[in-house]
Automatic annotation (TrEMBL):
<dbReference type="InterPro" id="IPR036691">
    <property type="entry name" value="Endo/exonu/phosph_ase_sf"/>
</dbReference>
<protein>
    <recommendedName>
        <fullName>Endonuclease/exonuclease/phosphatase domain-containing protein</fullName>
    </recommendedName>
</protein>
Length: 144
């Protein structure tokens, strides 16, 4: 993160049970990073989302909300407005319709709960499939 001047990462497939935070120390620089995670409650090791942030970003943290094993939210102090970031891990297209509907409903509800004056960033893995190997887009892309 330091090498590329990255302050915060949204990560998915953490495969960590429960929710919480830990401090990670980079061995080569001894800089500390804060890892906030939201995972499934059982020990299946499925899914999981989170954020990794440097100390400067951690100092701006106003709120941390582990929503589910597929959604988490943080709110950062900003100027001129605060910033809410949602980390996502969407179900694949092979998931049941109920699972997909539940995820997108939960994402919609979470997005609606963000303060209107905040900037909103939604980032993560939406399990999108594009390109010539995807049956859905193949007919369109083959023409190009």
């Amino acid at each position: 993160m330091e090498k590329y001047n990255i302050d915060i990462l949204c990560i998915s497939e953490t495969r960590i049970s429960g929710s919480g935070s830990i401090v990670i120390t980079a061995p080569e620089t001894l800089h500390q990073f804060h890892f906030f995670y939201s995972g499934i409650e059982d020990n299946s090791g499925l899914h999981g989302v989170g954020f990794i942030m440097n100390q400067r970003t951690r100092n701006a943290l106003l709120e941390w909300e582990p929503v589910s094993c597929r959604l988490a939210r943080i709110r950062l102090k900003g100027n001129p407005a605060n910033v809410s970031i949602v980390s996502t891990y969407a179900p694949t297209r092979d998931a049941t319709e109920t699972t997909k509907d539940d995820f997108y409903g939960e994402l919609q509800q979470l997005s609606s709960s963000i303060a209107a004056r905040d900037y909103l960033i939604v980032a993560g893995d939406f399990n999108a499939r594009v390109g010539p190997s995807d049956q859905t887009t193949r007919q369109i892309l083959e023409k190009f």
